[in-house]
Each structure stands twice: as C-alpha cells, then as structure tokens.
Amino acid sequence: MLNINHVRQQFPILTETVNGKPLVYFDNGATTQKPQRVIDAIVHYYTHQNSNIHRGVHALSRTATDAYELGRTAVQQFIGAKHAHEIIFTKGTTDSINLVANSFSRAFLKTGDEIIVSEMEHHSNFLPWQNLRDEKGIVLKVIPLTATQDLDIEAYKKLLSDKTRLVAVTQVSNTLGVINPVKEIIAEAKKYGAKVLLDGAQAVPHMKVDMQELDADFYAFSMHKVYGPTGMGVLYAKEELLQAMPPYQYGGGIIKSVTIGTSEWADLPNKFEAGTPNIEAGPATKAAIDFVNEIGIEAIAKHEHELLIYATKQLQAIQETEIYGNTANKAGVISFNIKKVHPFDTGTLLDQMGIAVRTGHHCTQPLMHCLGIPGTVRASFAVYNTIEEVDAFITGVKKAVKMLL
Ligand code: PMP
Predict the structure, then answer these.
(1) 124 CB within 6 A, ligand 1
(2) What is the pLDDT of residues 268-308, one digit of tens each?
(3) Looking at 29-188, which runs of residues are DSSP E strands?
(4) Does the predicted TM-score (pTM) go above 0.70?
(5) Alpha carbon distance 104, 196 (integer Å)
(6) In this structure, what DSSP letter does residue 120 have?
(7) CATH code of the domain occupying 39-293
C-alpha cells in the first residue's frame, strides 16, 4: 500500500499555496515536482563535489565523475539496458530525438527512404523528421488515429514498406494519455528491417519499461518528468547502432585523438557527449531513480490509475465536459474541454482556485487538427496526487461550468 502522506512529505513544494489556496499540482506531464533527496543531491554536489568530469586526475574531478556516472548506471538498471554505455546523456527527450535524427540520418538515410510517425506525436518527435523530409528528401508517413483516438494499427501496417527505415512513435501520448501497443509496432517494423524509436517521455514516469522486453532500437525520455532534474535527458540505443553512428555534436570530450588532419572518436558513450554536461544532474538522476524504486513503479502506476479512473468518472458525470482519448489503455493523463469554452478560460479559473493544469495544444498541433479543436485542458497525475485533490479539481470544473456557460 502506498503511504501517500510519507510520499507527500518528501516534496517541499507541495506545502505551497497558490492564490491563497493549497497547491493542487496536476501539470506533471509538463514536469514533475522534486523530492527533497533530489534537491539535496544538487546541493551536495555543489557543496562537496563540484569539479569538471572525465579528464581530471585530481581527487575532486574523480569524485564528480563517479557521482555523474552513478546516474548513468542507475538509468541503465532502471530501464534494463544491457550496457551503461548504451545510455547517452542529453538535455532531454527533444535533444535525444534530434541526436537520432541528425546522426542516424547521416549514417543510414538517403533520398526516398521512408520514416513513419503518428498523428499524436509531440512536436519533438515530429519536427526533426519533417525537417529531414525537407532537407534530405525523406518520405514522411503518418499513422492516423481511430475514432477512440487509438493508433490505427491496420493503417500502420499498410504504411510499412521495404523503404521504411525508421518508425518513430510515442509510447504514451502526452495529450491523451493513450498507451500505444509498441511491442506490436516494433514487431511489424522488424518484418521490414526498419528501426524503431520510442518517445518514452510520458511512459517512463508511469510504467515499467524494460529495454530487453521492448527491444526498441532507440528510446528517449527526460528525467525532469520522472522526479529528477531538468537538463538531463536519456537516449538509449543498441550498442551496434551507436557504434555505427557518427557524433552528433563536435567538441571536447568526444575524441581519442585529434590532429590537424583527422580525429578519432572516443568510445561510447563519450562519442555522443560533447562539451561539459549538466554534471549535478548525474547524482540528482540517481536520487530520483532511488525515489521511484523505493516506492516501486508498479505501485506508482496503480495509484495513478486509481486517480485516473476516479477523475474520469467524476468528469464524465459533468455533462458539459468532453473527454478526449476515450480508450481503456491509458496512463494518468486526462484531457478535456468544457463544451464551447476555450481551454485557456477553464485553466485560468482553475488556477484561481490553486489548481495547476496545462491548457493549449500541448505541442501536438497535428493531433489538435485531427480532433478539430484549438486545445484541451490537461490534468496529469503523479505519485503524490490524492483523491482529495481530484475532488478539489472536480469542484473547480463545476464552478467553471457555472461561470463560463
Ligand atoms: N515527447 C513527449 C511525449 C513529451 O510529453 C515531451 C514533453 N512535454 C517531450 C517529448 C519533450 O520533452 P523535453 O521538453 O523534456 O525535451
């Protein structure tokens, strides 16, 4: 059983008030709050460990390097990667996907090759491929959605061809919460020898992900959505792919040797980590993963699912609301509108009641075009949210209905 009081006590920000009301933070899809141990890890780093990593022989540099690399090992174990050097640290999901688009395309793509994405992608997993289409003459194909806003898997199968080189889809939709059948997507892609990149930004915080079980070629996520620091992203990729791909950025840290004539690249993961990274995010990442492991990702998923079911039921009972993503298989995200009301107006009223939700297109404009709406109000849950907070949110929505309709 999840001890919700114990969980909440670890998040200092949850005692804040907003507009004189206790903060109800339902914007976890954008970023989660940080437990004390993550904040402490950052303070500890700057108080006791600060030094540049990897190239120093002095003690402090070795300490900082070890602290940073412990973050990598924690991520490796957390997502079940075979090797720590298959974990590339980036700035975030966006950076990870751009790394693949840039480097994989130079190694493996030529004009006329095909990439498949879906209609529900975050712009971070859409624009890099759209750009490749325009710059390199790659053909970009888009998986449509069904009436329940699931991916249309039959349509996907028809889009695959011998020219498909990459399928890049999200595991969980940030706007709808829909969990996609990624194992089936990967199995179908493999029939054509295509590689698969999963955007795991909204999956890793909510469910167990295991690289051996999934067998994705690339997997991207951001630590700041998993109770960890901003500026720390992960690109997991299979070793043989990383070996075959060229660096994505050039500079210090990525080389074995440099002469005026040529350069030899460093071993993995350094080949893809040019320049001084966000060093304090290494120990903070480990602290965040320790936090999740201590509770257990399954217990987190169960708790969030209970909140989702409860909130959905309450919201459905308000006739003036419309919920998007009406499928059974969802993570803790609920997207809705009060009919005929702009989402900004609903969000602004909820904010006055201390309730933080996200409003707008959620960086998924193609999905908004598909749904024929300008945006939604999105409540996204984390382990520290409570049924009482959902009640406050529902009361807020009812007030908003009265005031806005
Ligand atoms: N993909 C998805 C599904 C997301 O939810 C987000 C964050 N909203 C991103 C990519 C981008 O993540 P970041 O801003 O951390 O790079």
Answers:
(1) yes
(2) 999 999 999 999 999 999 999 999 999 999 999 999 999 99
(3) 87-90, 114-118, 139-143, 164-170
(4) yes
(5) 12
(6) T
(7) 3.40.640.10
CATH annotation of 4-26+296-404: 3.90.1150.10
Closest-CA residue to 148 (of 185, 181, 176)? 176
What confidence tens digit (pLDDT) does each residue in 334-382 have? 999 999 999 999 999 999 999 999 999 999 999 999 999 999 999 999 9
Q: E strand or H helix at 24, and its extent? A: strand 24-25
Tell me: the pLDDT tens digits for 160-209? 999 999 999 999 999 999 999 999 999 999 999 999 999 999 999 999 99
For atom 12 of ligand 1, which residue has the closest CA? 93
With the most atoms of ligand 1 within 8 angstroms of its CB, the residue from 118, 173, 222 to mutate is 222
Mean pLDDT, residues 253-267:
95
CA of residue 263 to ligand 1 center, whole Å: 34
| Any ligand 1 atom below 6 A from CB of 28 | no
The 3-state DSSP class for residue 377 equals strand
Helix (H, G, I), strand (E, B) or coil at 157: helix
370 a catalytic residue: no
Give dist(CA 67, CA 250) in Å, integer. Answer: 24
Torsion-angle region of 403 (φ positive above 0: left; ψ -120 to 50: alpha; else: beta): alpha
Q: From the CA of 200, how far away is ligand 1's center (Å)?
A: 9
Q: Which of 402, 396, 389 is nearest to 348 (CA)?
A: 396
Ligand 1: centre distance to CA 398 (Å):
30
Q: Is the CB of 90 under 6 A from ligand 1?
A: no
**In the chain, where the domains are located:** 4-26+296-404, 39-293
For 89, phi and psi rounded to 5 degrees? -85, 130
Catalytic residue among 42, 363, 368, 404: 363
For ligand 1, whether the C-beta of 168 sits within 6 Å is no
Q: How many CA atoms lie within 13 A of 327 on its CB side?
A: 21
Q: Which atom of ligand 1 is nearest to the CA of 172?
A: 3
Q: Which of 388, 69, 383, 104 is nearest to 244 (CA)?
A: 104
